[in-house]
Amino acid sequence: MKKALIAIYLVLFCALPALADNAQQLVGVWKLQTYYAEFQDTGETKAAFGANPNGYIIFTPDGRMMALLTAEGRQTPQTDADRVAAFRSMSAYSGTYRLEEDRWITTVDVSWNEAWTGTEQMRFYRLDGDTLTVTTAWRSNVIYDGRITRSTLTWIRAR
Asked: Which residue stretches of the chain are H helix?
């Protein structure tokens, strides 16, 4: 029993500094570079918001995040059809986040898609210097009429 407790202590002792380092590296403002959607049924990959998507994600030291993404070439909506297109060409949400190993989990308190409000959104992430790569789990995607997708987004630290 004593050996098991020592082993658990050593694992936590080694893991907690790594999580703390990741938390410090994640804090700040990140600018969106690429956003690809992969379709589970076909394996097709698509530049979800065009070749030059717009967006920022912000992580604060006290555990709040906010993300806003828009497609390239959006126009001011004039009709109901335009408003539907505007909804489908953006994503935005905010909430408190926590880190668990290679992922962050956000408890969403406001979102462009009300179905997300009050839920937890989980993202896998990898930090490489000033590059943040984010991958979603497979999920039903409102932008693609409920098709099952996962997304990979690349961000660079904003200066």
From this structure: 2-26, 80-88
User: Are 120 and 111 in contact, with CB atoms under 8 Å apart?
Assistant: no
Give the integer Cα–Cα distance in Å for 85 and 121. Answer: 24
- Check: CB of residue 126 under 8 Å from CB of residue 14: no
Number of domain units in the chain: 1
For residue 125, give the amino acid letter: Y
Task: List residues bridging with 103 in a β-sheet.
Answer: 100, 124
pTM over 0.90: no
Is there a contact between 120 and 105 (Cβ–Cβ < 8 Å)? yes
Residue 91 and residue 69 in contact, taking contact as beta carbons nearer than 8 Å = yes
Mean of the per-residue pLDDT values of the chain = 90
DSSP three-state, residue 93: strand
Residue 38: which domain range? 2-157
Mean pLDDT within 21-25: 84
Lowest mean pLDDT among 18-27, 49-58, 70-79: 18-27
- Do 64 and 93 contact (CB within 8 A), yes or no? no
CB 69 within 8 A of CB 35: yes
